[in-house]
Design a protein that fits this description.
Number of strands of chain B: 5
Shape of chain B: globular
CATH class of chain B: Alpha Beta
CATH class of chain A: Alpha Beta
Largest interface: A-B, 30 and 27 residues
Shape of chain A: globular
Distance between the termini of chain A: 11 Å
Largest sheet of chain B: 5 strands, mixed
Order of helices and strands of chain A: EHHEEHHEE
CATH architecture of chain A: 2-Layer Sandwich
Oligomer: heterodimer
Number of domains of chain A: 1
CATH architecture of chain B: 2-Layer Sandwich
Number of domains of chain B: 1
Helix content of chain B: 40-55%
Radius of gyration of chain A: 15 Å
CATH topology of chain A: Heat Shock Protein 90
CATH topology of chain B: Transcription Regulator spoIIAA
Strand order of the largest sheet of chain B: 1-2-3-4-5
Strand content of chain B: 25-35%
Chain lengths: 143, 111
């Protein structure tokens, strides 16, 4: 089977999230993945990128973030890598939605969405880089 | 993303056009704050041109639910695409935020 590996590099600003979404969408569309699955995966990658851009890179356009999509047996792996501050938000439990509403909180549900969409989420720190690795089980057919 | 606001009788309509993500959700936040400050009590959100929503957009809607309940403000979203509705459904927010098929149904819920 032909192995696939595609990547995009963006400056750390939320205006560039649309480019990441377009990249993931275009890459996955070539693999004949159902549209609904693609939409969910695009969302999960967007959520991690938005978190990293805003919280770890403070939307600093001089910092870069890279998204890489690769074939793995039984699915796809998404690596999101940047040199911003290390923070592993996967150690936190999911928030309670009624509590968030009561406290009028706007944030806190991004990772919850990612957990429901992806099969695994791993965070690694290597030298000055933080990498979030998301894995999604999928039947992939290469055209 | 753009939000157009208009008043039709007692209804305050927000038409969201584009993608609601971490970069654009502030626009929705400002529009809902404005509706709240104008003491609008019947807010209709036309989602027919909303083609993407992430947690940032969901979070903005969520953050007003408490104030809307206290102030007895109704908010109904309508003409939400399946793609966008699915995002509300993942976290069960479709049971906390009213989402209906069309404007007539939305108005019907407010009577």
């Amino acid at each position: 089977m032909k192995k696939m590996m595609e990547k995009i590099k963006i400056a750390c600003t939320t205006e560039n999230l649309k480019d990441v979404r377009k990249f993931v969408n275009t890459t996955l569309s070539k693999l004949h993945i159902p549209e609904n699955e693609i939409n969910m995966i695009v969302l999960a990658v967007d959520e991690i990128c938005a978190n990293r851009i805003i919280h770890s890179n403070k939307s600093d356009k001089n910092n870069q973030l890279e998204v890489q999509i690769s074939d793995r047996s039984e699915g796809l792996e998404f690596n999101i890598k940047d040199s911003g501050e290390f923070y592993d938000n996967t150690i936190q439990d999911d928030p309670n939605i009624p509590t968030l509403i009561k406290e009028k909180r706007k944030g806190g549900i991004g990772l919850m969405l990612v957990r429901r969409i992806m099969d695994t989420i791993e965070v690694k720190k290597e030298e000055s880089y933080t990498t979030y690795t998301l894995f999604k089980k999928l039947n992939i057919s290469h055209a | 993303m753009n939000i157009t606001t208009l008043k039709e009788n007692q209804y305050y309509i927000l038409l969201i056009d584009g993608e609601l993500d971490a970069s654009s959700s502030i626009t929705l936040d400002n529009a809902l704050t404005e509706a709240l400050s104008k003491k609008e009590s019947k807010i209709l959100v036309d989602c027919s041109r909303l083609n993407y929503i992430s947690s940032a957009g969901l979070g903005v809607f969520m953050s007003y639910l408490q104030d809307f309940e206290t102030e007895k403000i109704s908010m109904v979203l309508y003409q939400v695409s399946e793609k966008v509705k699915n995002v509300f459904t993942i976290l069960g927010l479709d049971s906390l935020i009213k989402i209906v098929a069309n404007k007539d149904e939305a108005i019907g819920l407010m009577k």
